[in-house]
Amino acid sequence: MKPKMHIGYDLSWMQLEGRWRLPGSWTNAVYPDIRIFKELAQIAERGLLDFMFWGDGTGIPSTWKGNRDDAVRWGVGWPRQDMSPYIAALSQITSRIGFGLTYSSTYMHPFYTSRLLNSLDHVTNGRIAFNVVASSRRADAANYGFDELMEHDQRYERMEEFIDICKALWASVEPDAFLWDRASGQMADPAKVKPIGHRGKFFNVMGPLACVPSPQGRPVLVQAGASPRGIQASAYFADMVFAASPGIEKQAKHRKQLDAALAAQGRDSSSVGIVWDVVLIVGETDDDAKRRHEQLLTAVPPEAVGAFMSHQIGYDLSKLPDCFTIEEINEQITKANASPVGFLNMTAGIDPKEKITRNDFYEVIRHHTAGYDHAVVGSAAKVADYLEEVFVATGERGGFMIAHPPAVPRDLLNVIDFLVPELQRRGRFRTEYKYPTLRENLLDS
Fold first, then answer.
1. pTM for the whole thing?
2. For the chain, what is the mean pLDDT?
3. Measured at the alpha carbon of residue 266, what is the angle toward residues 264 and 268, in degrees to the nearest 5?
4. How far is it, in rounded angstroms, from Cα 33 to Cα 169?
5. How far apart are CA 318 and CA 324, in angstroms?
């Protein structure tokens, strides 16, 4: 039997950077109308997807030109709701599909976060995944009282301590601690409820968590660090890794680096899958998909591109000189504790030592912002060929996060109605949900 892929649908940007107005997007409803999300959840569960996923950002981008005007005008990086109450509502009209929620360990407190996620895991009957991120966006930092970005490696130190605390809190009340004995009146066994007494570099938390243990014990933990320090953090605690798709060779290298880091932590590498971020445009035919692909370049107005990318990497691209090399700019980004990995992914097709003009560079990032150059485009058979090739080359562990759809619900419908049946015919995707919890379904391959 062939190993099966796990597939999630990333809705982080469905309303951003012009996607809300492309053909195939909703009419007569706009974000954050919950009717949109209810319909998406039912479509995704009909297609047997593993989870719906939301990244997050809590600030309106203001890195570009030192103000937020272009971001506000063109819908760059905002609006974004806290998706936790939406997930609670969506869980009531679905029964199996999981929900991935993002919070930043750079800014949030582990006690609050662990309590919230425990409650959501109860409400969803064990279908929550927690995507923990180390934040590098200046607008977000300013909203949490930071004048500068936290140093890169320190963000990951804080993340690891944050997760240590969350895991200790989730384990601080044993699964069978509650008795609910009506005759005696005893509710719980004190011997099975223990404080954690954590005192660390970033947090002091006594505990225990004053909650009933959740159906999964704890949420599925997802992490997306791609730098050497980020991969180390993934190996330390992640149940599943979320990673970019810079090409099969680099993806295979990432898988090997993660395996080595997992081995160094004494963990079984076969138990930790990678879900590769991939922009898919699936059509009934190749020509249909190509037509939709061309629409991508109309989504983001040229005026919005600089605001988008400056926010993503934490560096003001309006300050670029007339001519420069990628290496020169990356050095400045690194010194600013911003996101050099994000910048290098964005410029992967450019020789880092070769001079490039500002105008040519903006054209490159315009294509990157739209997801145009790295989209996988074609009929279900063609797209399935690509997914199988990557899946096999990276060890047949994990699967794919279908990211940043050009227009919903159309692009999700095409995945469910065209691509999923093709993958099922090849024995690469489930034909039913076997288990009630997200963790169990992710372990089933």
1. 0.91
2. 92
3. 110
4. 34
5. 13
Measured CA to CA, the distance from residue 364 to residue 350 in angstroms comes to: 9
Nearest alpha carbon to residue 207 among 120, 115, 117, 122 = 115
User: Residue 375 forms beta bridges with which residues?
Assistant: 279
Looking at the DSSP bridge assignments, the partners of residue 52 are 9, 99
Does residue 343 register a pLDDT over 80?
Answer: no
The CA–CA distances, whole Å, from 254 to 75, 251, 262, 393 equal 33, 5, 12, 11
**What is the tens place of the pLDDT at every residue in 211-235?**
999 999 999 999 997 889 989 999 9
Using a 10 angstrom Cβ sphere, with 0-12 exposed, 13-18 middle and 19 or more buried, the burial of residue 205 is buried
* Alpha helices for 133-210 (secondary structure H): 138-143, 152-170
Q: Tell how strand 273-283 and strand 375-379 pair up.
A: parallel
3-state SS, 221-270, equals EEECCCCHHHHHHHHHHCCEEEECCCCHHHHHHHHHHHHHHHHHCCCCHH
Who wins on pLDDT, 135 or 109? Answer: 109
pLDDT digits (tens, 9 = 90+) for 78-95: 999 999 999 999 999 999
For residue 117, give the nearest of 46, 220, 14 by alpha carbon: 220
Model pLDDT for residues 295-317, shown as the tens digit of each residue: 888 887 777 888 888 887 888 98
